[in-house]
Design brief:
The chain is of the alpha/beta class. It folds into 2 domains: 279 residues, Glycoside hydrolase/deacetylase (TIM Barrel), CATH 3.20.20; 141 residues, no CATH class. It contains 16 helices and 19 strands. A hairpin with a 2-residue loop joins strand 6 and strand 7. The chain is elongated and about 80 Å long. It starts with a helix and ends in a 6-residue tail after the last strand.
């Protein structure tokens, strides 16, 4: 390696991508419109594209208030879809908790397609990312947004896994915010403001950071409180009772603006900072559509997943457990049908299981032809239903996908080594949830308590989120 190449790598390693997200969820405060324009013009002046996170209601309110100027300024930036009505009950988390995944996906499409199209018409661009309030996008939102051609999700559940960097989950690229800009707005003196700078410093210095995603509420520049506090504890007051939040005095507004400007310069002056958009990052991480796998690659993946039920890296690609399951099933099914292993295996990306997982209680032994016939059936099911089975039934014995996968990976390795599987296949109880389930991202999924009715726990959402752990994999870091 030449010294120039080494320098290039050092520079590349130091680079930190910076995302600016502007949460424009407040549709009722007319003064907030000017704050959207303020941010849009400020960022544009420095050649930065921010991401304006806008609800259908906010977009329609801008039109209603005749704010062509705001729309024009904001249209120069990236647009994220922030749901149609933000905190009005039932929010997506509330209604999705009462629905199975299929019905939930249908309901999200039904409720959100209008707002998405409002944004596309008003700003002249289709939103590239969905930031579904109130936090923690449930699987139905991920899958529904993907079906509506919005494959990027903000508000992901992943804070610890992959260090809060993007994660593939439910076939969408999931992002998280790292830096909340508003926390110095209401404080007197410079302490809170200086703390913000320190926070930025320590984020930039974190090893392997690579990306900082910052967010702020433009409305908070003028409004003393959030517009949606009236929906606290599940309350749904009629429109006539909605109140514009109390406004800050002019001097306070000017102080906040100059503080924000100061922070923006501080960030931009830091070495290695590179402002970026969600779309640019998506293009960087996007996986090749034409990739098929060789049998050697699938054997390597089978060996890896046999050691631990988790995502596996092969070359520059990372595969989730559900993708590896599909590759192994296809190989076994084609072996049974054609008496030889396939040379090329397609990359399929089904959903994770959608109902309660089966579980094998004790070891069983079955004839290999029965096992391979089951592989043919499951492979057809993946093609037809595009999801991993939650339960596999062989000779009236119910097992989970992990139980079947462990035996399937061993059978495939035996075929590649000996030309045939063992006559009798042993299926042992195995893990049925991938290892990522042990991270706090899955053990501590929370929904903002202040907004929901007091008894809301989101228990079905949490169960469904855990089932989709089969689809989790980090982005390939070398792409950053
Ligand atoms: Zn919001």
């Amino acid at each position: 390696m030449t010294s120039k190449e080494r320098l290039m790598i050092r520079r590349k390693n130091k680079m930190v991508y910076f995302l600016f997200a502007l949460d424009c969820g407040d549709p009722i405060t007319p003064e907030a419109d000017d704050c959207m324009k303020y941010w849009a013009d400020l960022l544009a002046k420095y050649g930065i594209k921010g991401c304006f996170v806008i609800t259908g209601a906010t977009a329609r309110a801008l039109v209603d208030r005749g704010r062509k100027d705001v729309i024009k300024s904001v249209s120069k930036h990236e647009i994220a879809y922030h749901s149609d009505t933000h905190s009005i009950h039932p929010t997506s988390a509330e209604y999705l908790n009462e629905m199975d995944l299929n019905s939930g996906i249908n309901e999200v499409i039904k409720k959100e397609i209008k707002g998405i199209n409002n944004l596309a018409e008003i700003f002249g661009q289709y939103p590239v990312i969905s930031v579904q309030p109130p936090g923690n996008s449930p699987p139905a939102v991920n899958y529904a947004m993907n079906l509506m051609n919005i494959p990027i999700i903000g508000h992901s559940i992943f804070t610890s896994f992959n260090n809060g960097l993007p994660v593939w989950y439910c076939n969408c690229l999931n992002f998280r915010y790292h830096l909340f800009m508003d926390s110095f707005f209401s404080s007197k003196g410079n302490d809170a403001f200086n703390k913000k700078k320190e926070e930025i410093d320590s984020l930039c210095e974190e090893k392997d950071r690579g990306l900082i995603s910052a967010f702020t509420h433009p409305a908070a520049i003028v409004a003393k409180s959030h517009w949606d506090l009236i929906f606290k504890d599940g309350k749904n007051p009629p429109l006539s009772e909605w109140l514009v939040p109390p406004l800050r005095p002019k001097t306070e507004v000017e102080n906040i603006k100059s503080g924000l400007k100061n922070l923006l310069f501080y960030i931009l002056k830091k070495p290695g900072i590179k402002p970026v958009t969600y779309k640019e990052l998506y293009n960087l991480y996007k996986e090749p559509a034409d990739k098929w796998f060789s049998q050697d690659e699938v054997i390597t993946l089978a060996k890896g997943i046999g050691r631990e039920l988790t995502y596996q890296k092969i070359g520059k690609i990372i595969l989730s457990p559900v993708e590896i399951f599909s590759l192994i099933l296809y190989s076994l099914a084609k072996f049974k049908e054609k008496k030889r292993l396939p040379v090329q295996i397609p990359w399929r990306k089904p959903m994770g299981p959608t109902s309660q997982l089966g579980r094998l209680r004790e070891k069983i032994e079955i004839d290999s032809s029965i096992f391979l016939d089951k592989a043919i059936k499951l492979n057809q099911d993946i093609n037809r239903f595009h999801r991993l089975p939650a339960r596999v039934n062989i000779n009236q014995i119910v097992m989970g996908p992990g139980d079947f996968l462990l035996a399937a990976s061993k059978a495939l390795i035996a075929i590649s080594e000996k030309g045939n599987p063992d006559k009798r296949i042993i299926i042992k109880p195995a893990e049925n949830y991938p290892s990522v389930i042990k991270t706090i991202d899955f053990s501590q999924i929370e929904y903002p308590r202040w907004l929901f009715p007091k008894n809301f726990k989101g228990e079905n959402l949490i169960k469904r989120a855990r089932l989709q752990s089969w689809t989790v994999k980090p982005v390939v870091k070398s792409a950053m």
